[in-house]
Amino acid sequence: MNKRCSLTRRGYPAHKFDTVERMAQELETLRTEMEAYLKQYGMAVFYGYHRMVDSMSQVLWDTARHPDFKEFLQTARHAGVRLIVFNYRAFSLAQIDDALDELEDAELTREEKRSYESRLRKLQAYEGFTCAVELSFTIDGRVYSFESSTDWYEAFTDILGEIEAVMQEHEDEQDDSIGGYFSNN
User: Fold this and answer.
1) Mean predicted confidence (pLDDT) in 171-177
2) pLDDT for residue 6 is more than 50
3) Please, which residues have CB within 8 angstroms of residue 39's CB and are 6 or more apart in sequence?
4) Residue 99 to residues 37, 55, 171: CA-CA distances in angstroms?
5) pLDDT tens readout for residues 14-50
6) In 3-state terms, what secondary structure has residue 68?
7) Alpha carbon 177 to chain centroid distance?
8) pTM score of the predicted model
9) pLDDT at 10 (0 to 100)
10) Rounded to an integer, what distance in angstroms lies between the CA atom of residue 6 and that of residue 14?
11) Are 103 and 119 in contact (CB under 8 A)?
12) Predicted local confidence at residue 56, as pLDDT
């Protein structure tokens, strides 16, 4: 019996795309639910940027023990919050390209680079999908945040962290090697 593999979006086999689609849709669905919930309860929504870069002190919601965003928003309402900052990010090929550019400059063996490249290219299937959502509000100079991201996006950020660690290690080695060239006089 000859099994044919039908191709779908971006040339991936249909069975593989179904898994990718299902994994990617989970956060898409959550994002849609969040917007509907905010509208239903009459909360003002400000579509802003990721708040972790704010200089204010941060308090992160414990999503491991309390994963329901509705609980976070109910807490905000009970605290008198009327404005919620909503941010969501779509995954783009530019993020992968930037990682590949960094990888090119990393001091790794050819085999290590190929391994990272392979892992990064597998993530191309998620282009355009929501990779992270964030709800936040500010009270008394503190930012309170609810964040959720997909497993595949966390894998991507782990890869970035690994590449950055290798590059930092190489920079540290170079700094150490320069030490003997200068006089202490």
Assistant:
1) 65
2) no
3) 45
4) 35, 26, 18
5) 444 455 666 557 788 999 999 999 999 889 999 998 8
6) coil
7) 36
8) 0.73
9) 43
10) 6
11) no
12) 73
CB atoms within 10 A of CB 1: 2
Secondary-structure breakdown of the chain: helix, strand, coil percentages, each rounded to the nearest 5: 55, 20, 25
Q: How many CB atoms lie within 10 A of CB 4?
A: 6
CA distances to 17, 75, 171 from 24, rounded to whole Å, are 10, 28, 36
> What whole-number distance in Å separates Cα of residue 160 and Cα of residue 117?
11
**How far apart, in whole angstroms, are the C-alpha atoms of residue 167 and residue 165?**
5
Token couple for 58: 């941060």
- Counting every residue written for the chain, the total comes to 185
Q: Please report, as a single letter, which amino acid is at residue 56.
A: M
The tokens for 121 are: 């290219």
Average pLDDT, the chain: 83
Query: Partners of 13 in the beta sheet?
Result: 7
For the stretch 80-97, pLDDT in tens is 999 999 999 999 999 999
Residue 28 contacts by C-beta under 8 Å, 6 or more apart in sequence? 129, 130
